[in-house]
Amino acid sequence: MPKPVRISVIGAGSGVFSLGLVKDLCLTESLRESEVSFMDIAPERLETVHKLATRYADELGARLRFESTTDRAASLKDADFVINTASASSHGAQRRAREMVAAHGYYYGGTNLHERHENFDLMLSVAHDIERICPRAWLIQSGNPVFDGCTLMHRETSVKVIGLCHGHYGYLEICKELGLDPARVTWEAPGLNHCIWLNHFLYDGENAYPILDEWIATKAEEYWHSHVAERTHDTQMSRGTIHQYQIYGKMPIGDTPRTQPVTTNWWYHTDLATKKFWFGERFGGPDTEIARPFYVAGLEKRLEQMREAAHDPRARVTDIFGTTRTREQQVPIIDALTNNAEGRFQINWPNRGVLDGIPADVVAELPALIDASGVHPLKPAPLPRKIMLEQVLPYWLDMERTLEAYRSGDRSMLLWNVLQSHQTRSYNQAVEVLQAYLNDPDNQEVRERFTGFDGAGDRWKAPKQG
C-alpha cells in the first residue's frame, strides 16, 4: 500500500521551488495523500505559496494537506522528510558585498572570502533541530553550499543528509546541441558538487566523445559567434567549457566550468570582456554584473506572477504552472525511500570509498540507487589523475580550509584566503579589503565569530610596490 508522508519545507517562501514540489507530489500517485508543512520567516510569501499549493492540488484532485508556519520546530514535528532550500544571505547582501570589495580593486567579489558562514550556522541549526524533534527524518539539502554544508552536517550531526543540485543536467545540453536522443545516452559524471566530469558518455552503447569532437572541429566556432544565451547559466557548450575539455579529456558538467574563479581557474574570470569570451554572450556566464541582476529580476517576476495568481480567484493555477513533472529529484527520492519506487539518482553523499582519491567523510557527488532500504552509491570509474590533481583535490582542500576557518574562527585563515586570490596584487591590498569586509555592518556576525591575527597594523605594512 502506498504510504503518505509528512514533508517540512524550510525556506518555502522561494515559491517557484515549493510549487514545483507540490506539482511533483500531485503527479505521484503514491504520495498524493501526504502532508506538506511550508516554513519561512516571510509570512507574505508563505501565504502566497499556501494558497497556490492548495488550489493546485484541488484542481488535480490530489488529497494533499498543507500548513504554513514561521515556527521551524512546529514544521519539523513528526516530519518524515525535511527539504532545506533556505539561504541566510539575501541577493541584496551579496550585491553589497561585491560592491564593497570592488572599491579595493577586486572584480565581482574576487577576494576568495567565502560568504558561507551564516549558511553553515543555518544548516547546522536545522540539522540539530531534526536530531531533537524528528530524528528519523531524512534531510534533503537543496540549497547551497551543498558540498561544504553537507560535509559539515554529516561530520557534526547524526542526520541522514542527501544533497541535491541541478548541475548534472548539463549532459542534456550536450545532447541537445549534438542532436542526440537523451533516452539513448548513458552517462556518468562523478566528482564533488560543482566539480563533476563526464567520465562515461555512450550513445547506443558506443563512445559518444567522437561525436563531440566532430562538433568542436566543424561547428564550435560558429556556435560561439552566433549563440546568444537566454539563460544566465547557459554555459555548457561555451568556449570555456570546451577549453577545459581540451585540457582534461573529459567534459566538465553543469557549474563545473565556472568553479574556483579566484584561484585554480582564475583566468576565465578576470573581467566582463574575458568572461564573455570564455562563456559567451549575452551574460558571460551567471557570475557577472549583468547576469546576476537579470537572474534576480527573473525570480522577482515569477514571485509577482505567483502573488497575482494567488489573489485572482478566477485563475486556474494548473494553466499557469502546468501539469508536467519537474526535473527535481526530491519527490522521486521520497517515493523511493517511502514506497520502494527504486530509482537511479545523482546525489551528494559521504564518499566512503566510492570515489577514488577522496576521504571517506567528504561528501562526493555520485550516482546512486535509492529504494526503501536506503541509499546505495554506485562506484564510478576513477577520474583521470590530471583532473584529480588540478581540479578535484584543490577544490576539496579549499572546502576543508573553509570548514576549518568556520570551526576555528581564525582571522588569519581569512587573510590567507584573500592572499591566495589571483586578483590580489599586494599584501597591503589584502589586509585593507579584509578590514573593510570585517567592518561592514552586514558582516557583524562574521566580525564577532573570527578573532586573532589579521595582519593589520603598521608593523606589518609592506613597502608600496613601484
Distance between the termini: 76 Å
Q: How many whole angstroms does the radius of gyration measure?
A: 23 Å
Provide the CATH topology of the domain at 6-164 and 309-331.
Answer: LDH C-terminal domain-like
Class by helix and strand content? alpha/beta
Report the mean per-residue pLDDT as an integer: 95
How many strands, what sense, and barrel or not for the largest sheet? 6 strands, parallel
Question: What amount of the residues lies in strands?
Answer: 5-15%
Q: Could you estimate the helical fraction of the residues in percent?
A: 40-55%
Separate helix tally: 18
Uncertain spans? none
| β-strand number | 15
Q: Provide the spatial order of strands within the biggest beta sheet.
A: 3-2-1-4-5-6
What is the class of the domain at 6-164 and 309-331 in the CATH system?
Answer: Alpha Beta
The coarse overall form would be globular
